[in-house]
Structure formats: C-alpha cells, structure tokens
Amino acid sequence: MFQKLLQLIEAHQVIIIHRHTNPDGDALGSQIGLKHLILENYPHKRVYMVGDDAGYLSFMDDSVMDTIADSDYEGALAIILDTASARLISDNRYTLAAATARMDHHLFQEQIAETEVVDDSFESCCGLIGHFAMQCGLRLNPLAAKSLYTGMITDSGRFRYDGTVARTFRIAAFLREQPFDPGDIFRKLYAEDFENRRLRALYTLKIQFTPNRVAYIYTTKEELDASGQDLFTIYRGMVSTMADLKGVDVWVNFTESDRGVLCELRSTDYNVNPIAVKYGGGGHAKACGATVADRETAMAMLQDLDRLVGEMK
To answer: How many helices (H) and strands (E) does the chain have?
Structure first.
C-alpha cells in the first residue's frame, strides 16, 4: 500500500505538505509528524508545510507554517493529508506540483491526487502515517513521534472511539519508544481558561432536542458576532457540549457564517455520514460535517437525523 508513496518521496528533492483548513490535532499532527519523519530519514531533502494558522494548536512544536513561492512547486511533490475533499485543502497550490499524493483516513469521496493512500479503517491520519513508518522501516525522532501521537489522541477521543483497535495501540507503542512526555500533550491540549468554560456552560443551556432525542444547538450570525468568539471555537468547539448526554445518540451543532450554516454531526451508534453527504459534506461514519445554504436547509437535515434515529429504535 505504501510502496508507490515511498518511491515518490525518495524521487523528489522538494516535498510540500498540505492538510485541511482549520486544522485539528490530527491534521496538524500528521503534517508536522510526516515532515520530521521524512527529514529524519532523508535529511538532505527540503520539506515545507503550508496552510492556515495552527490556531488553538499553536502550542505544538514546529506548528508555524512555511511561506513559499509558487516557483517552489516546480518539480516538487505535494502531499495532502487528512482531507477527504479537494475544496477543504488549505492552499490550493498543490495543483502546481510535479506530482501529488494523498494520505487520508476519511470515507472516500473523490480522488484528489495522482497517488492515493486512503484507508478509513484507521482512527486517524497520524495512525496511518505511523503505520507507514512501521511498514517501511523508517526511523522516527521524538518530534515526529510526539506530533503523530497528538493526532492519534485527538482523533480517537483519547482512544475511546470505535476506530480504536489493537493496531492503534501497536502504533502508539511504536511512537512511545521515542522520548517524549505524553503528559505535556494532555496538559496543553485540554487546558481551558475560565472564559471558555463559561462559554461551554452557556452553550449547554442552548441545547434543544427533537422528538427522537437528537440534540442540537443553533447559533445565528448575530449570536456568533455578539459572543466575541472566532467561528472555529463555536462551530467545532461547542459540538462537544452535547457529547455523553444520557439518551442522546446523535447530536449536531449548527452555526451561521458568511459561508452558510456550518453543520457538525456526531453519533455514538449510528452512521450519520450519508446524511452529511446528502447535504454536500462528508467525513467519518459517526463524525462528519457539511455546509448548507440557510437555516431552512439545516432544519431539513435535522429532520433527517431525527428520522434516522426513529427508524433505528
């Protein structure tokens, strides 16, 4: 599965790594991890990372993106990570590269690159890259291992989600052979200031329920602006306020934005991905998203989710 990708890495002196916009721990961890995995094994290559800022993950080592010119793509290999759809790629200049490859663990939506390593059985893209290193006999260094471990933690929900299998722990053990402190990751990743805790409390009070106990929050553009928070904090950060509610198996966070209504869908038991795909989105079976045009369409999605739960009961 990895031989063609390894050949491409070996054949190109310049490698430029992309991932999706608004990076989470897996997107950024896979980007940093792959960069330092390549440099550890091929120190004479030039490896760049591009995309939007790290945001709340700026505490991660080497999380500042590189500023490069279009001319740097001449003869280069562009690798896209943790991205199911081309429209989500941060920095679309990957199309300028001489060769393109993708590593991803989302449900397949479309071909993005010439060479594709896509396996949705992995809990994270970082786990897929860790497996790549193991299978190809590549050396790790502490920064590569710590970055990949961070992504595995976040996308597996601290090894709680369904994608966590025996292989997950074998890869994690392989990464832990390097000297880094996992406690440092947890302290920084889950540190929360009082204002954010207060915001989560306010959003807990916004939770509503459909007849079949689909939990949802709807934030208007006016409410978003009045909160003083950035879009990512609300549409991705607040979805977790509905997790672990007794009797709730599906939940969705709706947030109005200049791009439309951002919809973050989550489930403990049901495959909600087909509903996300129906509305132009995608992702995983139990964690996915979409952007719809207006509140009316968002409410139609909510009805579909409610109907799904009702039919499965």
So the answer is: 11, 11
CA distance 186 to 199: 21
Q: What is the mean pLDDT of each run of 10 residues along the chain (313 residues)?
A: 95 98 95 98 98 92 97 98 93 97 93 96 97 97 98 92 92 97 92 89 97 97 92 91 95 96 95 95 90 97 97 82
Q: What Rg, from alpha-carbon coordinates, does the chain have?
A: 20
- Strands 250-257 and 260-267, how do they pair? antiparallel
> What pLDDT is stored for residue 284 in this prediction?
86
Residue closest to 47 by CA, chosen among 143, 178, 134: 143
pLDDT for 256-266, tens place per residue? 999 999 999 99
For residues 19 and 103, what is the distance between their CA atoms, to the nearest angstrom? 10
Q: 257 burial class (0-12, 13-18, 19+ CB within 10 angstroms)?
A: middle
User: Which of 280, 285, 278 is CA-nearest to residue 260?
Assistant: 280
Strands 282-283 and 250-257: unpaired
Q: Which amino acid is at 299?
A: M
pTM of the model: 0.83
Distance of CA 32 to CAs 18, 144, 261, Å? 10, 7, 31
